[in-house]
Amino acid sequence: MTNLFYKRPTAMRRRLYDPLMRTLILRFGFGGFLDQTGRDSVQVLAVRGRRTGAVRSHPVGVSVSDEGRFVIGFYGHTQWSRNLRACPAAELHTRGRQHAVTAVEIHGADKERFLRTLVDRYRFFARAWLKVDPRRLGEADLRRLMSDYPVFRLDASVDA
Questions:
Q1: What's the rounded Cα separation, in Å, for the pair 15 and 63?
Q2: Whole-angstrom distance, CA of residue 48 vs CA of residue 38
């Protein structure tokens, strides 16, 4: 597990984009709907750091399906995804509302089904971020996606 894919965010992303998105989401409720159904959105995920214990907040895309709410690490095995593995209790925030969630990393057939749906739903993102051609998604592409990009299902926390 030492050679996990991770695309380190640029200084502009860390210093400008993420703080701006956090502010827009938390203060104004800007969720930047991601699809035509209006169910998927951008929210702020707050997760406890695995080393420091400090709460870290990151804008993430939340994809909603009949099977639940999901987040994917579009930059690979990001720091927030590693923190979520270590401490699955987290919160989703948007404009004054917060929802306690418990993250469950998905694997195998569930992950494959989610990734296929994601690539089909967001063809532009699939080409730009995941570097796959949605029309010709082969087994080699799918294996790479499954190893490079962590996916978590966010269940409502029972102690919320």
A1: 25
A2: 29
User: Quick one: tokens of 111?
Assistant: 């992950």
Longest dimension (CA), the chain: 43
What average pLDDT does this structure show over 121-135?
92
pTM of the predicted structure, to 2 decimals: 0.90
DSSP class of residue 149? Answer: S
**pLDDT digit string, tens, across residues 74-91:** 899 999 999 999 999 999
Residue 46 phi, psi (nearest 5) = -105, 120
CB atoms within 10 A of CB 135: 10
CA–CA separation, 27 and 20 (whole Å): 11
CATH number at residue 62: 2.30.110.10
CA dist., res. 151 & res. 50, Å (int): 18
Q: Structure tokens of 30? A: 């800007």
Query: What is the sign, positive or negative, of the torsion defined by CA atoms of 29, 35, 37, 40?
Result: negative
Domains contained in the chain, number: 1
Residue 11: beta bridge partners?
none
For residue 2, tell me if it sits in a domain.
Answer: no
* Residue 86: Cβ within 10 Å count: 11
- Indicate whether 119 belongs to any domain: yes
